[in-house]
C-alpha cells in the first residue's frame, strides 16, 4: 500500500477460515459451469488447460508476491513496486473498473436464477430487462451497505455465499450420479466428443473459462485486514484452489450427464439441469432451494469483489494518485466508504449502458467480455511483477514458487501468453449475438474509454502534485 506510516487502516479481522471461504466465493462462479456445459464435453479439456496454463501460474504468482509484499492494495502495490507509479495506477485502475461491468453481469446471472425460487410463477420475468435492472440496483445497494458497515459483518455474507457456490455443485453432482444410473447420460463422453474444437466461433468461450479461474488475487487487496497474511494467504489459496477446480469440472460433467449441450442454457444451465433431474425424480422441491443458494452465492461473490476492489482506490487515495477522499475511512465503521459508494454508483450506470440497444443475453455477453479484458490487463502486470522480483533477494519468511527462480520465470511467461491470448478472444462477439458490430463497438469502445479515463486521472494527479511541489 502506501509508504506513509501515519495512515489509519481498517482492523485485521479475517482469519484463515474467512480467507479460504473468501477465495471460494470469489473464485467459483457457477455461471461458467453453464457456459462450459453449453459448449459440450470438449469444455472439460479446456477446463484442465485453463487450470494448468492460467490458474497454476496465477496462483503461484499471487502466493510469492503476497508473501514478499503483503501490502493492502494487492496487484496495485505489486505493479507499483516493480514498475513505478504509472504501472501501478493503470493495473489498479483496470482491475477496479473491470468490476463495473462485472457487477451487472453477475447480477444478471443471479437474477436469472432467482426467478426459479417461486417455481413457475416468475418465469415470465426472464424476458424482462426491467426486472434484471431493478434486481441489479437492489443488489448493489445491499452489498454496498454491508461493506460500509465493515468486514466484521460483511464477511458473513461472503462466508454464506461460499456455501451458495459449492452446495449447488454438490446438488447437481448428486443428481447427475442418480441420473446416470437410472436414465443414462444425456451426453456422449468419448475421445472424439471431448476433443475441443479449434474453430474460432467455438474458441470464443475459452477466455471465459480462463477468467473463471481468477479470484485468487482478491484477498491480497485486503492484506492489511488479514491476520498474519504471509501465512494465511498461501494456506487459504491451496485449499480454495482444490475446491474451485473440482467445482468447475464436476459441475460441468454433472450438467452434461443430465442435459445435452444443445439444450443447455449458457446463462442458467446449472439450475436448468437441477430442474430437469429433480422433476424426473419427483424432487421438484429441490429447485427453489438450489435457486436460492445460487442467488445468495452470487450476492456473496459480488460483495466479496466490492470489498476487495474498494481497497485499490483506498490505497491510491493515500498515495495521492486519486483524490484524498478515497483514502479516508468512515468515522464510525472504519471502512473506505467513498470508494465503495463510488463503485456501486458507477456499477448502476453500467447496468444501463450494458442493456442499451440489445437483449438481456446480449447485454450479459458484452459485460462479460468487458470484464474479462479489463481484468486481464492487470493480470499481465502480475506475471510481469513475478518475473521482475526474481532479481531481488528473498527474505527468510518469503514463500517462493516451488522450484525457485527458473520455475517462477517459466510460469510467469506461460501466464503472460495465456492472458494475452484470452484478451484477444474476449474482444470478439459471441457467435449467437444478433448485432455483432454493435457488440464489438461496445466491447472495444467502452473498454478503451475506461482505460483512457484512468490515464487522464493519473496525468491530472501528477500535474497537481508537481504544482503543489513548487508552491
TrEMBL record:
GO terms for molecular function: transmembrane transporter activity. Keywords: Cell membrane, Membrane, Transmembrane, Transmembrane helix, Transport. It comes from Sphingosinicella soli. InterPro entries: AA/rel_permease1 (IPR002293), APC_superfamily (IPR050367). It is a multi-pass membrane protein. This is Amino acid transporter. It is found in: Cell membrane. The chain crosses the membrane at residues 20-39, 44-63, 131-151, 163-183, 203-224, 236-262, 282-312, 333-354, 366-387, 407-427, 439-458. One of its GO terms (cellular component) is plasma membrane. The keyword Protein biosynthesis does not apply.
Amino acid at each position: 500500500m502506501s509508504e506513509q506510516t501515519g495512515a489509519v487502516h481498517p482492523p485485521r479481522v479475517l482469519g484463515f477460515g474467512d480467507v479460504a471461504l473468501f477465495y471460494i466465493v470469489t473464485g467459483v462462479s457457477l455461471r461458467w459451469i453453464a457456459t462450459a456445459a453449453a459448449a459440450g464435453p470438449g469444455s472439460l479439456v479446456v477446463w484442465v488447460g485453463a487450470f494448468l496454463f492460467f490458474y497454476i501460474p496465477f496462483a503461484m504468482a499471487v502466493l510469492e508476491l503476497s508473501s514478499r509484499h503483503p501490502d493492502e492494495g494487492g496487484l496495485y502495490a505489486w505493479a507499483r513496486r516493480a514498475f513505478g507509479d504509472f504501472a501501478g495506477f493503470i493495473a489498479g485502475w483496470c482491475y477496479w473498473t473491470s468490476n463495473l461491468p462485472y457487477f451487472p453481469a453477475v447480477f444478471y446471472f443471479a437474477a436469472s436464477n432467482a426467478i426459479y425460487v417461486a417455481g413457475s410463477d416468475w418465469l415470465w420475468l426472464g424476458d424482462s430487462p426491467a426486472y434484471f435492472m431493478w434486481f441489479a440496483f437492489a443488489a448493489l445497494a445491499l452489498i454496498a451497505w454491508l461493506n460500509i458497515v465493515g468486514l466484521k459483518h460483511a464477511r458473513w455474507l461472503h462466508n454464506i455465499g461460499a456455501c451458495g457456490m459449492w452446495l449447488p455443485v454438490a446438488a447437481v453432482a448428486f443428481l447427475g450420479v442418480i441420473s446416470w444410473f437410472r436414465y443414462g447420460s444425456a451426453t456422449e463422453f468419448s475421445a472424439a466428443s471431448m476433443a475441443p474444437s479449434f474453430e474460432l466461433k467455438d474458441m470464443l468461450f475459452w477466455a471465459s473459462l480462463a477468467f473463471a479461474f481468477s479470484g485468487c488475487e482478491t484477498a491480497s487487496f485486503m492484506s492489511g485486514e488479514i491476520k498474519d497474511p504471509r501465512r494465511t494467504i498461501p494456506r487459504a489459496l491451496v485449499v480454495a484452489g482444490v475446491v474451485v477446480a473440482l467445482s468447475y469440472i464436476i459441475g460441468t460433467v454433472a450438467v452434461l450427464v443430465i442435459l445435452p449441450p444443445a439444450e443447455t442454457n449458457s446463462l442458467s444451465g446449472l439450475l436448468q439441469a437441477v430442474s430437469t433431474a429433480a422433476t424426473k425424480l419427483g424432487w421438484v422441491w429441490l429447485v427453489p432451494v438450489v435457486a436460492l443458494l445460487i442467488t445468495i452465492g452470487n450476492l456473496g461473490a459480488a460483495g466479496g469483489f466490492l470489498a476487495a476492489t474498494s481497497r485499490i482506490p483506498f490505497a491510491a487515495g493515500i498515495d495521492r494518485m486519486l483524490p484524498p477522499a478515497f483514502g479516508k475511512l468512515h468515522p464510525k465503521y472504519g471502512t473506505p466508504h467513498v470508494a465503495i459508494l463510488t463503485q456501486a454508483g458507477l456499477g448502476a450506470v453500467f447496468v444501463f449502458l450494458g442493456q442499451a440497444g440489445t437483449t438481456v443475453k446480449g447485454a450479459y455477453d458484452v459485460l462479460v467480455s468487458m470484464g474479462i479484458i479489463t481484468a486481464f490487463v492487470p493480470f499481465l502486470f502480475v506475471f510481469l511483477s513475478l518475473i521482475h522480483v526474481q532479481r531481488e533477494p528473498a527474505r527468510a519468511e518469503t514463500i517462493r514458487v516451488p522450484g525457485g527462480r527458473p520455475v517462477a520465470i517459466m510460469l510467469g511467461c506461460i501466464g503472460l501468453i495465456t492472458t494475452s491470448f484470452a484478451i484477444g478472444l474476449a474482444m470478439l462477439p459471441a457467435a449467437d449475438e444478433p448485432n455483432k458490430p454493435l457488440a464489438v463497438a461496445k466491447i472495444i469502445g467502452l473498454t478503451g474509454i475506461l482505460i483512457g479515463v484512468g490515464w487522464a486521472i493519473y496525468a491530472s494527479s501528477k500535474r497537481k502534485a508537481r504544482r503543489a511541489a513548487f508552491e
